[in-house]
């Protein structure tokens, strides 16, 4: 049986996957949810790839949001059997998040971002990007329990601004079978960005869920079902 590795995105951490993680564990799956440091696409993908390659046996690699870009690069690891994009970016080789997103009208996210400098040892300061705390529940987690959304808002993990312009060196979907979930009520990523990337990647199946960006909290059973479908199809 494949190990399921869940990769979180920007403005979130491993807890963003908690409802789906619980369901998959209850259904008897082996699940791992590694941290993503949100510093650069190449570094984050290298970290996830190393994590995956240390697993004995096949892996189903699922990525949410920015995590979709991460699995696009990390998913070329030999033991990755399937990719699952969850409200995510399916990048082409040489394409960045900004380029893919720039081809479509802005979501509400762009107007609700905060830019904060962070120190870099021996170099110029970097810039962290996060979501305005007060806007987070509506833009990122609409439809999620307000108390849960409030906790997620104040514990979000920022994304380095540099990651938005960094091109993908490889695209695992060219050689690995993929599945996709579109959050049709997404206010963080324009759902058409998701649809376009998935269609271009030729994913085996795309499921549309009437859910916000944080679909794993809003509709965990449907997300778990798609991941299980990928696991069964590539067992």
UniProtKB/TrEMBL annotation:
Q: Record's superkingdom?
A: Bacteria
GO molecular function terms attached to this record: hydrolase activity
Q: Where is the AB hydrolase-1 domain?
A: 4-226
- Keyword Repeat set for record: no
| Pfam families linked to this entry | Abhydrolase_6
InterPro entries, per this entry?
Answer: AB_hydrolase_1 (IPR000073), AB_hydrolase_fold (IPR029058), Sec-Metab_Biosynth_Hydrolase (IPR052897)
Q: Which UniProt keywords apply?
A: Hydrolase
Record bears the keyword Hydrolase = yes
| Protein name stated in the entry | Alpha/beta hydrolase
């Amino acid at each position: 049986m494949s190990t399921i590795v869940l990769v979180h995105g920007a403005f979130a951490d491993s807890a963003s996957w908690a409802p789906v993680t619980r369901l998959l564990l209850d259904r008897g799956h082996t699940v791992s949810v590694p941290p993503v440091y949100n510093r650069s696409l190449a570094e984050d993908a290298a970290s996830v790839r190393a994590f995956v390659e240390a697993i004995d046996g096949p892996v189903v690699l699922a990525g949410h949001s920015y995590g979709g870009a991460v699995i696009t690069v990390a998913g070329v690891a030999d033991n990755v059997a399937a990719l699952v994009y969850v409200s995510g970016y399916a990048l082409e080789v040489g394409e960045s998040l900004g380029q893919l997103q720039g081809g479509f009208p802005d979501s509400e996210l762009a107007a609700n971002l905060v830019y904060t400098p962070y120190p870099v040892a021996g170099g110029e300061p970097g810039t962290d990007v996060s979501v305005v705390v007060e806007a987070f529940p509506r833009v990122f987690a609409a439809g999620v329990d307000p108390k849960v959304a409030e906790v997620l808002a104040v514990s979000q993990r920022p994304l380095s601004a540099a990651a938005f312009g960094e091109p993908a060196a490889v695209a695992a979907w060219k050689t690995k079978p993929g599945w996709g979930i579109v959050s049709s009520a997404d206010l963080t990523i324009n759902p058409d960005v998701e649809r376009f990337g998935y269609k271009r990647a030729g994913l085996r199946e795309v499921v549309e869920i009437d859910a916000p960006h944080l679909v794993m909290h809003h509709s965990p059973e449907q997300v778990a079902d798609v991941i299980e479908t990928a696991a069964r199809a590539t067992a």
